[in-house]
TrEMBL record:
It is found in: Membrane. The keyword Cell inner membrane does not apply. It comes from Cetobacterium somerae ATCC BAA-474. GO terms for biological process: signal transduction. Residues 592-776 form the Histidine kinase domain. The lineage of its organism: Bacteria, Fusobacteriati, Fusobacteriota, Fusobacteriia, Fusobacteriales. This is histidine kinase. Pfam families: HATPase_c (PF02518). InterPro entries: 2C_sensor_his_kinase, GAF-like_dom_sf, HAMP_dom, HATPase_C_sf, HATPase_dom, His_kinase_dom, Sig_transdc_His_kin-like_C. It catalyses: ATP + protein L-histidine = ADP + protein N-phospho-L-histidine.
Length: 779
């Protein structure tokens, strides 16, 4: 096909070449600048690494000195005025390492600051004298010295490192001091292993007017010298020209014992090779960009020339559509505007086909919704809230998957455990037709589903979908695969959930929880109409459950009211009799015969009085203020109250508290609970001849923020039959008690939103476990 000079293709090619040229130039500049920056960074990193090696050699040098001296020091007995010891130490250290110890001076000083001996290089003798020995003793006692083992000092315009090693016995302490001059020769000895090139340099500069060394104020610029004097940092890095050549310089500042600046170690790496690398990099990148420009221009020109070729095909296709001919399939051809035209025609035909398919799907969904309405109606009509709430929930779970019910694939019921703060798998129902027809997924997702769910726990204290549905009491649905969402447990991600919803069950007491239902192996989506039907089912089911719980609460209230009336009925009469009898017994001058008779019944009268007090506590209507209560303080107070009883009955008690046990509740009632449980533990130990023991453990679970209290005794234990009705009122297996203690304890813990459990082995021991919610500050 002939292309005109004023065609769009020619213009596109021209402007594309301009864009390629400008883009290539911009990329070249960016790449070159990035490369230069990377090169500069590399030499900076190299300098810092070599500087770190230099500092490592510097610090290990003094560590080696301390180790060498410690090896030798045990061979001698140091005493006052022993000059030979210093000479022998220097001699042996020179044999160990001549280079390190040639310029060093060995000095022995007493703890009072007296110079006992000194030996070393003559040029460095006498640097320790009466004027500065006290500085050495003061500096060696500082915490900073303990960390390094040495310090720096300036004497006669020269810098010395003092390594001080205390030595002696329990009564006498001596100080062995190794003094090393810090100068250029010392710095040179530290450069071993740095792999410096012939163009790299090291310098030692001093802040003293020492003519033999470089002066810091002349080596550095005024600005750098002032910054160094401030001592803000020990290490400095900067670019500097030295003798007309460029270097990247690392500076380590030497700070004296009095925090004064003494001098610096300077490591300078040459940047001459860096300049050559920058030039070569610029050339390589320029050549590469030029090649890219040529290749891009050629390729794009050929591509654009093909753009107009499919135009005839698109025109023919448009002519067929305009004539009303049916086109089942349109292939997308061409590029740019031509491709857009092709796509538009294709989309038009597809929309017509989709509209027809949507009508068919809507008809099917309408029929499906009508069937579900009938199924939900039958389910609600046939569902009676049984005495056993769990049976009612099982009916609901089965109704979700029944073909005569709602016809979903799978339903899994998770019950909320208040003790552990988890949703725990309890029941599973699978559509029978699914087992026969489905060939999708894995076998364990159907065959082993119940075993998997029964061992699945979902935490309620995070933001997973099950916890959210349960806490917000609303149905959550997802028309997608379940593994894409946070379901609180990886097992739920593995079972192949698809197009699922979470149905909350609330108001069912200990059977509250959620039901997870899905369309496993089916391409059926959950729509808004279906969600409204499920909400209707949820509302009606919750009303039925709540009515049953209301009845149970009413029965509980009536039982408590009966106890209150029973206590009030007997309190007054029994109280008056007990008071009179006790008054007669405690009288100072009763007849001997009366005293003798009353004394025999005194224990029974005291027991009646205790019963009166117990009944009075259970019958009183006192509104306690709920506040932050620390269980460890209550337990310690109770142990103190019972200390005399523990001693008289030979009971050993231990209290381990890993937390303060802060909860929101009534301090009075919680203290009564602790006393009641300790009383029971003491009574259980009465028949035990020896080794009577009570253990109390207070801890906090980190996972679900629960406070856990355990009271364990090694008494006579409780039978399994007695454990069945242990929290019922007026049930006691001791003739001396009313049987209200554990009833009160159970009620208080339940009112505080907690759980209490008894575990016992008859004839051996009993453990009481209480779980309460930890106190949380209001935000």
């Amino acid at each position: 096909m002939k292309i005109r000079k004023d065609s769009l293709l020619i213009k596109i090619i021209f402007y594309n070449d301009i864009a390629i040229f400008l883009t290539s130039i911009l990329i070249a500049i960016v790449v070159i600048l990035t490369s230069f920056q990377d090169m500069e960074q590399r030499i900076e990193d190299t300098t810092k690494n070599k500087m770190n090696l230099l500092m490592g050699n510097y610090k290990s040098y003094f560590g080696e000195i301390r180790n060498d001296v410690y090896k030798e020091i045990g061979k001698y007995r140091i005493s006052e005025g022993n000059q030979q010891i210093a000479e022998m130490l220097k001699y042996n250290l020179l044999k160990e390492d001549f280079r390190n110890y040639y310029n060093s001076v060995i000095t022995i000083i007493s703890s009072e600051g007296e110079l006992l001996g000194e030996y070393g290089n003559k040029g460095n003798l006498g640097t320790l004298n009466e004027d500065n020995i006290h500085i050495l003793l003061e500096t060696s006692s500082k915490k900073e010295f303990e960390e390094t083992g040495y310090y720096l000092a300036q004497v006669d315009n020269k810098i010395y490192a003092r390594v001080v090693i205390p030595y002696g016995n329990e009564t006498t302490t001596y100080y062995l001091v190794v003094s090393i001059p810090i100068n250029r020769d010392f710095l040179t000895s530290l450069t071993d292993g740095l792999e410096l090139s012939s163009k790299d340099r090291v310098y030692f500069v001093t802040n003293s007017p020492d003519k033999d060394e470089l002066q810091a104020k002349f080596f550095f610029s005024n600005r750098t010298y002032k910054e160094i004097l401030k001592k803000d940092y020990k290490n400095y890095y900067l670019n500097k020209k030295i003798n007309g050549l460029s270097y990247y310089v690392g500076i380590y500042n030497l700070i004296g014992y009095n925090d004064s600046y003494l001098g610096s170690f300077i490591l300078s790496l040459s940047k001459e090779r860096l300049t050559e690398e920058k030039l070569m990099t610029s050339i390589y990148i320029g050549i590469l960009v030029l090649l890219i420009m040529i290749i891009s221009s050629t390729v794009s020109s050929k591509v654009f020339r093909k753009l107009l070729m499919p135009l005839t095909q698109i025109a023919d296709l448009a002519d067929e559509i305009s004539k009303g001919e049916k086109v089942d399939d349109i292939k997308v051809i061409g590029q740019g505007e031509i491709r857009t035209l092709s796509i538009s025609f294709k989309e038009m035909v597809e929309k017509l086909n989709i509209a027809q398919e949507d009508l068919t799907i809507q008809n099917k969904e309408l029929v499906r919704n009508i069937e579900r309405i009938e199924a939900i109606d039958k389910l609600l009509m046939g569902m009676n809230i049984e005495q056993d709430t769990f049976k009612t929930i099982k009916k609901l779970v089965s109704g979700f998957t029944s073909e005569v019910g709602l016809g979903y694939s799978r339903a899994m019921y998770f019950r909320y455990s208040r003790e552990n703060d988890y949703l725990i798998g309890e029941e599973v129902a699978i559509n029978r037709s699914l087992k026969e027809e489905s060939k999708k997924g894995f076998k364990f997702q159907l065959k082993n589903l119940k075993e998997l769910v029964l061992f699945t726990k979902v935490p309620i204290n995070n933001d997973n979908l099950l916890a959210k549905s349960f806490k917000e009491q609303k149905i959550i649905y997802k028309n997608d695969a379940g593994y894409k969402y946070d379901l609180g447990n990886d097992v739920l991600k593995a079972i192949g959930l698809k197009n699922f919803f979470i149905f909350p069950i609330h108001g069912a007491g200990k059977f509250s929880g959620v039901v997870v239902v899905d369309n496993y192996a089916k391409d059926i989506r959950i729509n808004q109409e279906e969600l409204e039907l499920l909400n209707l089912l949820s509302m009606n089911f919750s009303i039925g459950i709540n009515n049953k719980e209301t009845i149970l609460d009413t029965l509980e209230s009536e039982r408590v009211l009966t106890i209150e009336k029973l206590a009030t009925r007997f309190l007054k009469l029994r109280g008056e009799v007990v008071e009179k009898l006790l008054k007669c017994v405690d009288s100072e001058n009763p007849g001997e015969k009366i005293i003798e008779e009353l004394t025999t019944i005194k224990p029974y009268l005291a027991r009646i009085k205790e019963d009166n007090e117990s009944l009075k506590i259970y019958s009183e209507e006192i509104e306690d203020k709920y506040e932050r209560v620390s269980l460890d303080k209550i337990i310690n107070e109770t142990i103190a109250d019972y200390s005399q009883k523990f001693k008289s009955e030979n009971i050993s008690i231990s209290f381990f508290n890993a937390t303060s046990g802060s909860v929101l509740g009534s301090r009075r009632k919680l203290k009564k609970v602790i006393k009641e449980l300790i009383d029971n533990a003491c009574n259980a130990l009465l028949d035990k001849q020896n080794n009577r023991r009570i253990d109390i453990i207070l801890s906090k679970r980190k996972i679900n923020e629960k406070i856990e209290l355990k009271i364990i005794d090694n008494g006579i234990g409780i039978s399994s039959k007695q454990l069945e009705d242990i929290y019922e009122p007026f049930i006691s297996y001791s003739p001396q008690t009313l049987g209200l203690g554990l009833f009160f304890v159970h009620k208080v813990i339940k009112d505080h939103g907690g759980v209490i459990k008894h575990f016992s082995e008859e004839g051996n021991s009993t453990e009481v476990k209480i779980t309460l919610n930890a106190y949380k500050e209001e935000v």
